[in-house]
Each structure stands twice: as C-alpha cells, then as structure tokens.
Amino acid sequence: MSQATSGVGSGTGAAAGATTPSDFPDLPEATVARLPEYLRALHQLADTGHDTVSSEALAAAAGVNSAKLRKDLSHLGSYGTRGVGYEISLLIAQIEHVLGLTQRRGVALVGVGNLGHALAGYAGFGSRGFRVVALFDADPRLVGKTINGLVVRHVDLLVEFAPAEGVAIGVIATPASAAQAVADMLVAAGVTSILNFAPCVLAVPDGVDVRKVDLAIELQILSFHEHRKSAAGGAVAVGAGAEALPR
Ligand SMILES: NC(=O)c1ccc[n+]([C@@H]2O[C@H](COP(=O)([O-])OP(=O)(O)OC[C@H]3O[C@@H](n4cnc5c(N)ncnc54)[C@H](O)[C@@H]3O)[C@@H](O)[C@H]2O)c1
C-alpha cells in the first residue's frame, strides 16, 4: 500500500507516444508530484500562444527552481534544445502519457455533503482528464437527488455500480467515522486509487494507492511557520491576526 498526503504534486529524447509509466520505474515520487504543476504551466503557455519555453520560464511558471525542473524532465528523457528550450506540445504529450492522462478516468464521489457537493460540480476535473461518473451517499434525503446531471445512489449500491460505471478513482468525502467502511467498499468494487478527504488514516490492501488531502494540516504547517517567525521577531505568543484558543 502507499499512502501520501498531498501538499504539494523539448527536444525530447523519448517520443511521447512511445512511453509508458513502466518505462520510468525509477521516477522519484517527488518528480511525479511536480509533473502536474509543469503540465498546468505548459497548458497555460500553450493557451497564450507559446510554442517553446525555456527551462527558466517554465520553472518560474510552475513555481520551482530551474535546476530541479531540468532534473525532473531529464528523468523523462526531455533535455530541451539549447537556445530554444522545450517544445511545449511535445512536453505536454509526454507528461500526459507518463501520468496516464491520455484516457479520461472515471471518478466516484462518496459523501455528497458540503465538500462532496462542491467537488461534484468542480469543472477542473473535466479539463484535467477526469470525469465524475457516480455519486454515493448514505443519507436518504440525498439519495435520488440529481447533482450536476448525476443521480445520487445509496452507498450500499457502490460495490454493484462502481465497476459498471467505470470507476477508476474513489473520492471519500464522508465523516472520518465512515471513511474506512467506504474505503473497504471501494476496494471490494475493484477500485485501486482512493483520494481521501476525511481526516483519518485508511487501511487498504497492497496495490491500493491512497492519497490524503487535508487543508487543516496545511494550515497547521503554515501556523508553525508563523509561530517561528514571531518567535524570531521576539513577538508575543499571539501574533497579528491570531486569537488565543480557550484553555
Ligand atoms: N481535506 C480537507 O481539506 C477537508 C475540508 C473540508 C472537509 N473535510 C472532510 O471531508 C468530509 C466531509 O465534510 P463535509 O463538510 O462535506 O461534511 P458533510 O457532513 O456536509 O457531508 C458528509 C456526507 O457524507 C455522508 N455520509 C455519511 N456516512 C456515509 C457513508 N457511510 N457512506 C456514504 N456517505 C456517507 C453524509 O450523509 C453527508 O452527506 C469530512 O470528513 C470532513 O472532515 C476535509
């Protein structure tokens, strides 16, 4: 099993269409996590009429340093051309190929409360290679409702319907107390990739990948940096914009 918290994540040597993820068995996880950033930046550059981009400009657009970007892309066999840079369309095709984005993957959302409802209507999935194909919830008041053209089914039907709907990735947006049971259902339905928004650790069998998104963790990390900055500045314990918690 692999479980990770997100926070993050041409003059090409290898032809884009000829590569598969198994061609890159040693691709570092940190590089994989940065590829979507490069892809986003490359699409933006292509949309604004650019054909080529220097490593410095692409690195700036992706928010990384250019040495790291060149190293990342060298793992894919992309070295750019001196004086020209990377050919944008080729690099897009290659990164999409490595990330397996050449086919649109079906996503099931489980839990369509505040967060799940918002995710169900998120246009960014479609434009980035994903399609929400099924919605599940346990609340009888939600079951049968249509959200963004999809009918909410009872979660008890997940194992039956997920394979039929071509679900490749399950997104859990239920309370933490329900998340493990939902993960078990997704696994029973043959889903091997799970994005977990619930604040808990999931136990899954080998071969199932779980990524966790937790905005509170990101805020806590920022809080640590705020805390350190105020300590360095000799400020009082409660900094600007902060309020003491009740004891
Ligand atoms: N990761 C983040 O950054 C982040 C941000 C906000 C919320 N969350 C988490 O996301 C989850 C959802 O938050 P929310 O605000 O949408 O809560 P919510 O209460 O509005 O929605 C939860 C939904 O899950 C459904 N549900 C409960 N048990 C279920 C089950 N066994 N099977 C299927 N559906 C079930 C409920 O009926 C409800 O519709 C919570 O765990 C919350 O802590 C995470």
TrEMBL record:
Residues 1-27 are annotated as: Disordered. It is found in: Cytoplasm. NAD(+) binds at G111, V112, G113, N114, L115, G116. Signal peptide: none annotated. GO terms for cellular component: cytoplasm. Keywords: Cytoplasm, DNA-binding, NAD, Repressor, Transcription, Transcription regulation. GO terms for biological process: negative regulation of DNA-templated transcription; response to redox state. Residues 100-201 form the CoA-binding domain. GO terms for molecular function: DNA binding; DNA-binding transcription factor activity. Residues 37-76 bind DNA. HAMAP family: Rex. Belongs to the transcriptional regulatory Rex family. Homodimer. Modulates transcription in response to changes in cellular NADH/NAD(+) redox state. This is Redox-sensing transcriptional repressor Rex. The lineage of its organism: Bacteria, Bacillati, Actinomycetota, Actinomycetes, Micromonosporales. The gene is rex.
